[in-house]
Amino acid sequence: MGGDTIQIMITMIVYMAAVIGIGLAFAKRANKNSEAYFLGGRTLGPWVTAMSAEASDMSGWLLMGLPGVAYWCGIADAAWTAIGLAVGTYINWLVTSKRLRRYSEKANAITLPEFFSNRFHEKGKVVMTIAALFILIFFTVYAASCLVTCGKLFSTLFGFDYVPMMIVGAVFVLVYTILGGFLAESASDFMQAVVMIIALLVVVVTGTVAAGGLGAVLDNAQSIPGFFDFFGIATPVTVDGVQQSVGGVPQFDAAGTYGPLSVLSTLAWGLGYFGMPQVLLRFMAIRSERELTRSRRIATVWVVISLIVAVFIGVVGRALYPDALTTSSEAENVFILLSTRLLPPILAGLVMAGILAATISSSDSYLLIAASAFSKNIYQGLFRRNASDKQVLLISRITLLVITAIAIVIALDENSVIFTIVSFAWAGFGATFGPLMLFSLFWKRINRAGAIAGMLGGGCMVFVWNLLIRPFGGVWDIYELLPAFLFSCLCIVVVSLLTSPPSKEIQQEFDEVRTGAAVTKN
Questions:
Q1: pLDDT tens track for 223-240
Q2: pTM of the prediction?
Q3: Which of 172, 164, 211, 193 minimizes the C-alpha distance to 23?
């Protein structure tokens, strides 16, 4: 290991120590009770709410997955995804945040499954159980994507084997999450959001200068068929998945078509936000709904800048190192490649900490929400209704261990593509909870039967479309979130209208929330 690599490692160790310090600082407050551990006692300010929501949402795919897609096949796929995410972010904050903050307090809920269950005043806890199980499934997949990021980062930087490095990352995230809970997670996510955007800007500016300026980067992109086309896509010439080069020049076939159906499919990423637990929990946790307007503006600006820069990093990487990354999996290392080759070791270490920041900020959210779904909603909600806070917290920590172990198994494949893993989990949450969240907040006629049908229909359709229908290709090659989201909406409306309307008590509560009568602590 050379001197530069050692300096990078030292910088990252200092950063990791700072994150652990935050966990220790918040440990006492976090372990006060389950509400403090899982929701921070509803005390988040607007800046922490906004920045932690977006940092936990974007994860390592912002710095590795999205630039990797742009490097491999051009801007169309990455850019339309980014546009969908930016629009979805703004609309979610604008439409959902205030009503959910108000309604979750009225329903006395500190987790998403608990909110859905209390929203329909159910006694059998069927809605809660289904929601908790889907959270466990999809967040375990999500956590695995974060561990893949850790493994790729450490193995690429330090030359160690992928699997041991992935496990080291998993242990670090696990220890940190157990220590501090939601408050520590949110506070550190704020810091990590700052690190992430600085890292993105430093790398894109340095890379553009090294490539000969913006004009040179754009000229190179336009010289590749379909690479810099919003309605076309570059097609690398591959043999066994490896791109071929002639004289150091990567080979591409004629540009592929990126038609309206592909655009619509990719824009559908924005629908995922309405069902994303790590974001929705921030809406529930802010200290006052009046502060959500400021949070929305902060979050939107951060997201727009980050997404634009992340996509352009892939374009810059292709100009500087056109044949360095020869598979779609390797392409996700373009951010690391630019950082380590262009920046001084200490600064490169800080930028690598940006990747680690993105990964930690997401994986701790995923693990904590999944643990709360089991300990609070299944263990206490179904099996031990009189369980004490101390018992719930103990079960949550045991659950963290189990989920992490399963995520490690999923992440064992070194050739996993982060973007692909994330897209599946994103679709799962968006289709399972997105329609239910919107109808729960804005349609008085929705009932418990409709809620159950919507979750089962949306969640199952994600698997059916991804595994059975989408492989047919052609018009069926649509991102599974879109058809699953629409199917969930259909299930909710049809089943709710065919069954008995909700009770007068539930409808009255809905009206109170709609008119603002539920605000009691603001």
A1: 999 999 999 999 999 999
A2: 0.85
A3: 172
